[in-house]
Automatic annotation (TrEMBL):
PANTHER family: ACYL-MALONYL CONDENSING ENZYME-RELATED, SOLUTE CARRIER FAMILY 35 MEMBER G2-RELATED. GO terms for cellular component: membrane. It comes from Marinobacter nauticus (Marinobacter hydrocarbonoclasticus). Gene3D superfamilies: 1.10.3730.20. The chain crosses the membrane at residues 33-51, 63-82, 102-135, 147-169, 189-212, 232-250, 256-276, 283-300. This is EamA-like transporter family protein. Residues 5-135 form the EamA domain. Keywords: Membrane, Transmembrane, Transmembrane helix. Pfam families: EamA.
Amino acid sequence: MTPTAIVIVLVSALAHAGWNLFGKKVSPTGAFFWYSTFWGAFLTLPVLLYYHRMLPELDTGIWWLVVATGFFQATYLSSLAAAYRHGELSVVYPLARSSPLIILLVGTLFLGTAEAITTAAVVGIILIVAGCIVLPMQRFRDFTLANYRNLATLFALLAAASTAGYSMVDDLATERMRALLAGLAQDAEVALVFVILQAWSALCWLSLGLWLQSEERRLLRELAANWRSTMAAGILILGTYALVVWAMAYADDVSYVVAFRQISIPMGVALGWYFLGEALHGPKVVGVLTILAGLLLVVLG
């Protein structure tokens, strides 16, 4: 990874960790994520209008990729909400955050880009996944397969697969956009425009999901009064991912960016310890150190 990519992802990771601290007491639902996505898309509409000259330059293939990434993003948010409803945060979050790394590694084999990933980076990714799984446990003996054979795990893995899906699609789409818009837009502008398009696409898919679920429509009405929280969430989520998409332009493979994003987990642990007084159990310390070792290998790779 280049120094530019590292700095961008570090800023993004800090924002992501801050968002998790901010949203710690919020119960995720499809309706909540619909509002968050709506605010992110609506508030950035003037930006999209400002860059309207880019849109006619996009070919049909990119527009289909926008549809695809919106589907993966909507599936990710819906699956994550379902996973949290069926299981504990300490089991769901590490699975949803770390599993995309393994999926992306497998994906690079099929896409023929595996040669861009060094052996050190592969070892680093494996360490990051291992650290994410160990980190939330209070005791090492808590690791049993019985804790993972449930609906929470199923939805967490679906969320992970969706993360890997939109990461690969976004990397491909923005690479094509940069080629088409060479001379018309900078990399940061391409990333911003694409993420806004992704938000509108995801909003359409989420709207379809809410239309099919009466309970989510009821929650949608209840959350209408809580617009400040959903607006703040939408701005943070969209802004954080815009930085990630921008960083993809400076990395040899999308797996590097997705892997290095996991630095938000040690950041989150530090914020939880400092601001919320959360205990630092043995597995948590070992998990953080393992993740940091993996991150170092990814950077050096």
